[in-house]
Specification:
498 residues, alpha+beta, 3-stranded antiparallel beta sheet, 38% helix, elongated
């Protein structure tokens, strides 16, 4: 291993322009695999969802999953793509240790969807991302490397293979070259992946769980001298599984490439592994070109030829476009442009929407997700939707606040308990004894002690300076560990002193 020479991103961008290409792999939520009838349930015992087809046993023949083709067409339409009148599968030959047939059934020069685009927004500016293709293929199995310190094959004592995932239907979405202002590159990459996840989630064709690998991004990046039209050599950071990591991978590769080029070196065209703990990448393998894969048409599968009538029927099933939906939701929620922009930028739009659907007000939903939850996500280096709390639970906690059973301070302890797996919000309140005390007897005694302890504040209130009640309220809240009803405490103080 050699130590990478890194150049600060801001410094690198004074001399180089980044050029990106993004590939997003979407696992479809079909009930069965792409070419056989095996189930696709996540988390099943290893090697229990396999058959002769996905294990590539001699004589086993594949059959295309019709639902997967339907989902692929709907994805292509949502990406503003053209849908092929005729396309076919191909064999992509490569040494796959976790693909039993040692080639991947994919599409090559004849994808089902092509020539599309989407528009993403960053800091109020819109950027068009051109889509080259969206094609169908199958996923590989999963290798588990046992021993060693990295969890990777290097240094491992042995490896285990789970073929449950082999054959899961995938859609790969490939962009054309993306060239945006260098200081926006990382944010645009993140915004694009976020946009696609929202888009696919809205179609209902995938659960788009990045933490479970059902949406994964590959980040291709190269640098070219400022103002030059000649593209540099690219690296491909594989299987990046969070929005934050997409952004970090872009920034790291800009720094790494600039360090190599500044030293007069040449960037190696290779795949890279992204490390969540450090935000760095490491070398994987030298990248193959299309010719190296020896593509040829899959002889065991018939071409796919969707009728124009079927395509138009599927077009009619598409939900409203994300831009239209965002405009509608902003009007319905009463958000300002800045509030909506921040919600989208935080990747919280769907979470806020689901929390509102569960009964919270728009402002309450936004407050919790962009405040308390965003703080926790930043501390953990995680995404909002991986914190271990659901929009329904956030709405339930807000309902408890509205009912006067807890206050905002106690709500944070309820969040702690729910995230720690202590049960529902109601169970956490009972288990941690967090409910607000509204009994006048207990509150009255605490108020009397606060008045006795701060006679100056008490006299100011008697003299008509009601703002001085804040000091006494604070004393009562402190004594009762934040579980007093602050409004009722204020009323009791004023009743006793005015």
């Amino acid at each position: 291993m050699t130590t990478e020479t890194l150049v600060p991103v801001e410094d690198a961008l004074t001399r180089y322009d980044p050029v990106m290409g993004l590939e997003i792999h979407i696992e479809l939520n079909t009930a069965t695999k792409m070419f056989c009838g095996c189930p696709t349930e996540f988390g099943a015992e290893p090697n229990t969802q396999v058959c002769p087809v996905c294990l590539a046993l001699p004589g086993a023949l594949p059959v295309v999953n019709a639902k997967a083709i339907e989902s692929a067409i709907r994805i292509g339409l949502a990406l503003n793509c053209e849908i092929a009148e005729w396309c076919r599968f191909a064999r992509k030959n490569y040494f796959y240790p976790d693909m039993p047939k040692n080639f991947q059934t994919s599409q090559y020069d004849e994808p089902i969807a092509f020539d599309g685009h989407v528009d993403v927004e960053v800091d109020g500016e819109s950027y068009r991302i051109e889509i080259e293709r969206a094609h169908m293929e199958e996923d590989t199995g999963k290798s588990l490397h046992v021993g060693g310190s990295t969890g990777r094959i290097h240094g491992a004592d042995f490896s285990l293979v789970d073929y449950n995932r082999a054959g899961i239907p995938l859609i790969e979405i490939v962009t054309r070259t993306i060239e945006v202002p260098g200081d926006k590159a990382a944010a645009v990459a993140r915004a694009y992946v976020s946009y696609v996840r929202d888009l696919i989630g809205g179609l209902g064709v995938s659960d788009v769980r990045m933490d479970q690998g059902s949406l994964r991004a590959d980040v291709n990046l190269s640098l070219k001298p400022r103002g030059s039209a000649t593209l540099g050599t690219r690296s491909e950071t594989k299987n990046v599984n969070s929005f934050r990591s997409v952004e970090r991978a872009v920034r790291y590769e800009i720094s790494r490439h600039a360090g190599i080029l500044d030293a007069g070196g040449s960037v190696l065209q290779e795949t890279r592994h992204f490390h969540e703990d450090t935000g760095t990448t490491s070398s994987g393998r030298e990248k193959s070109d299309a010719d190296d894969y020896r593509y040829f048409p899959e002889p065991d599968l018939a071409p796919v030829s969707p009728s124009r009538e079927w395509v138009e029927e599927l077009r009619a099933t598409l939900p409203e476009p994300p831009a239209v939906r965002r405009t509608r939701l902003q009007a319905e929620w009463g958000f300002s442009d800045l509030e909506m922009r921040d919600t989208i930028g935080a990747g919280a739009l769907q979470l806020v929407s689901d929390t509102i659907e569960a009964g919270a007000t728009p402002q309450a939903a936004r407050k919790w997700w962009l405040g308390e939850m965003a703080r926790r996500a930043n501390e953990q280096g995680a995404e909002l939707d991986s914190l271990g709390i659901t929009p329904l639970q956030v709405a339930e906690i807000q309902a408890l606040i509205d009912a006067g059973r807890i206050n905002d301070k106690l709500a944070r302890s309820v969040f702690d308990g729910v995230i720690a797996g202590e049960g529902t919000p109601e169970e956490v309140i009972v288990g941690r004894q967090l409910e607000v005390v509204s009994d006048d007897g207990a509150l009255g005694d605490a108020v009397d002690r606060a008045i006795a302890g701060d006679p100056d504040a008490a006299q100011k209130i008697r003299d008509g300076k009601q703002a001085a009640a804040g000091a006494l309220i604070g004393a009562v809240m402190k004594e009762m560990r934040g579980q007093a009803d602050a409004g009722r405490v204020r009323e009791l103080i004023l009743e006793k002193l005015t």
